[in-house]
Amino acid sequence: MGDVTMYGSVSVDGFIADDLDQPGPLFDWLTGGDVPLDESGVLLVSQASYDYVRPYWDRIGVTVVGRHVFDLTDGWGGEPPSGIAHVVVVTHRPAPEDWNPAAPFHFVDGIEAALAKARELAGDRVVEVAAGDVGGQVLAAGLVDEVRMDVTPVVLGSGKRYFGATRSQLLLEDPEEAIQGDRVLHLRYRVRK
């Protein structure tokens, strides 16, 4: 079974979006380089970011997101982002009425059921959990093995927190990696169990 990894770009003051759910400059590092990160030609990063991010993305089998992210992205048009095979959406509501049932999206109620479905779909590949409220819930439940953060040099001041509404103290190990890219610092921590 692969690791469960919480992942996202984050401001230095701990936010993944502002109060209006806008990421602002948090993703500038994904378009400011000269090395293509994927086949789209849109994502261009530094060589250091490519060497860190691409191997990780290639190991992801499933991404777990909350319904809020799904709705904000309009379900990525039915195509999982970044070449991911499946997306598990944590929600108390069913799929949208006009949703294509053949799209590789799975609507599941609760984080435990979402992680069980994601692990089933991912096999020995990584289960990625999006940072934010759902990620924070999964972390607080002790189900996250690793935290990856792309820390960008911006202060948002307020907004959506990387760890969601988590109120409990959780310990991470020392950083396993700290890679400096252009306009981003990639950090990777194991979660202390």
Automatic annotation (TrEMBL):
Transmembrane segments: none annotated. It comes from the Bacteria. InterPro entries: DHFR-like_dom_sf (IPR024072), RibDG_C (IPR002734). Gene3D superfamilies: Dihydrofolate Reductase, subunit A. Residues 85-173 form the Bacterial bifunctional deaminase-reductase C-terminal domain. Pfam families: RibD_C (PF01872). GO terms for molecular function: 5-amino-6-(5-phosphoribosylamino)uracil reductase activity. One of its GO terms (biological process) is riboflavin biosynthetic process. This is Dihydrofolate reductase. It comes from Agromyces aureus. The lineage of its organism: Bacteria, Bacillati, Actinomycetota, Actinomycetes, Micrococcales.
